[in-house]
Write a structure and sequence with these properties.
By secondary structure, this protein is α/β, with parallel strands linked by helices. Helices cover 26% and strands 31% of the residues. It is built from 11 helices and 22 strands. Strands 6-21-22-20-19-16-17-18 form an 8-stranded mixed β-sheet, sandwiched between helices. The longest helix has 18 residues. It is globular and about 70 Å long. The structure holds S-adenosyl-L-homocysteine. The site of S-adenosyl-L-homocysteine has 18 residues, from helix 7, strand 17 and helix 9.
């Protein structure tokens, strides 16, 4: 049977499931429809946007019967903004959807037995409050048709700014900060950057907040246009017209700790420029991450903590409360007694390494970005940790080189890792990295993943190489989006 629908057709469909991108899935006349903005349980009239041979994409034209799982989203822009995909779905159902997504990937991509998966999977760790969890916000600045300065978010897959200073996932202070900047720009006729011409001054506003310290950082990304007048004002560190007034206003905001500018004159999608000048206050803010007891109800803190410094360019997890739970789970799964040698591959600024260092004999972190490793070393020092070493390079190159060296040398105890932790980007681990891990044969492997599809693929390789899947637990780091983090523990069969 060939596709009965064509573009723009209207179809009535009951939504029975949800896809990995958060779209509703339903069947009409035996054909599968993927319907944007529909949630499981809805009956909708959908308009076909793209018809393929076996299936079609559509979007909701009219909600005929609302699902019991549908809730009123807090954000009026949730359909246009690319940030959230499932804000209209009840949060409890969002969690089951994510649990199910991980389970399905383990079964269908990893080839694990479904009963066994149900045995080893623990309940997903949700958020107490799924709003206001992000500690970082990046807003583009532009001009509207009437020539007014606007800031907001890009409408899905475009660079058109939808004006909005309120994102309910971010810190409450963001709105006031953005309004101050916009009104300062309007008052002194300061231009926003125009992507097409490469002209105009203000490109983006970055806001970061240390949730446990209350410290706030604002960084204005500006276009460093060539020109004599500008250059001389740059020497005086006057980067923005009437800068003193803006700084005085921003400094009134409770918690304001750092105001800086980042210079970016490139015509690219890379947002931050490398050159940063602090205009007011400190160059960094601090945040504290607490260790939590994941075996107890409500995951209470244990009293242990680590302090991190964050600059405008530093990588730092965006949901600090869930990050504490994620790292505490890694700590629990690593099963440390104080005698272990542990490798932390894809370590970023060393957060997991340092979190685990107190319970291990030695930790070795590996990360490809040199600046992140500098931060990791500084963070180790700041927290008085002296049993952590960090290597710059690709995990799939550093690990095999280290292993080959150690095999030639006399065994000094470091060649045999007791535990390897990996936290790769979405594409998962490189096959060479997985192969070397199998050769090094640690007792336990803890895999932290932000993409359960590549996780399942890599787990299959590790399990075929002698490991057994023991524990799996998802953690919701990004409520209202379809993303989910997963922590897995494998131990060697022998
Ligand atoms: N574990 C850290 C960071 C995880 S994000 C944390 O919890 O904060 C993944 C990290 O892997 C990024 O910092 C990225 O720069 C790094 N990375 C990407 N490819 C890599 C590779 N081939 N080898 C080592 N690190 C890599």
């Amino acid at each position: 049977m060939c596709q009965p629908y064509k573009k723009n057709d209207l179809v009535t469909v009951t939504i029975e499931d949800m896809g990995t991108g958060g779209e509703g899935i339903g069947k009409a006349n035996g054909f599968t429809l993927f319907v944007k903005d529909a949630v499981v349980g809805d009956v909708v009239e959908a308009r076909i946007t793209l018809a393929k041979k076996q299936y079609a994409y559509a979007r909701v034209e009219k909600l005929l019967k609302s699902s019991p799982h549908r809730v009123e989203p807090r954000c009026p822009h949730h359909r246009r903004c690319g940030g959230c995909q499932i804000q209209a779905l009840d949060y409890g159902i969002q969690l089951s959807y994510k649990q199910q997504k991980v389970r399905n990937h383990l079964i269908h991509i990893g080839g694990f037995d479904s009963d066994y998966v149900d045995q080893v999977m623990e309940p997903i760790v949700g958020m107490e409050d799924p709003y206001r969890y992000r500690n970082k916000a990046l807003y583009p600045v532009g001009m509207d048709r009437e020539g007014h300065v606007v800031t907001g978010f890009y409408a899905g897959r475009t660079h058109t700014i939808v004006p909005s200073t309120e994102c309910y996932l971010g810190a409450e202070e963001n709105k006031q900060i953005l309004e101050m900047i916009v009104s300062h720009m309007e008052k002194y006729h300061i231009s926003a950057y125009d992507e097409n011409t490469g002209r105009g001054l203000v490109r983006h506003v970055l806001i970061r907040k240390g949730f446990s310290t209350g410290e706030i950082m604002v960084c204005l990304v500006i276009n460093k246009e060539k020109g004599k007048k500008r250059d001389s004002s740059f020497e005086k560190k006057e980067f923005i017209p009437q800068q003193a007034q803006l700084l005085s206003a921003l400094s009134q905001i409770k918690g304001m700790t750092s105001v800086s500018v980042s210079m970016n004159s490139e015509k690219t999608n890379v947002i931050m420029g490398k050159e940063i000048h602090t205009l007011w206050g400190c160059s960094e803010i601090r945040d504290v991450i607490h260790v939590r007891d994941m075996g107890r109800e409500g995951f209470p803190t244990t009293g242990q903590e680590l302090t991190f410094s964050i600059s405008p360019l530093s990588f730092y997890q965006v949901n600090p409360i869930q990050t504490e739970k994620l790292y505490s789970l890694v700590l629990e799964y690593a099963g440390l007694t104080g005698r272990e040698v542990l490798w932390d591959l894809y370590c970023g600024i060393g957060t997991i390494s340092l979190f685990l260092a107190g319970k291990a004999r030695q930790v070795c972190g590996v990360e490809v970005i040199p600046q992140a490793i500098e931060d990791a070393r500084a963070n180790a020092q700041r927290n008085g940790i002296d049993n952590a070493v960090f290597y710059v390079g690709k995990a799939e190159e550093v690990l095999p080189a280290f292993y080959a060296d150690k095999q030639e040398e006399e065994q000094d105890g470091l060649s045999h890792p007791d535990v390897i932790v990996v936290d790769p980007p979405r594409k998962g681990c490189d096959p060479v990295c997985l192969e070397t891990m199998l050769q090094m044969c640690p007792d336990r492997i803890v895999y932290v993943s932000c993409d359960s599809a590549t996780l399942a693929r890599d787990l299959r390789i590790l399990c075929d190489g002698g490991y057994k899947l023991r524990r799996v637990r998802a953690v919701d780091q990004f409520g209202h989006t379809v993303h989910v983090e997963t922590v897995v523990m494998l131990s060697h069969k022998s």
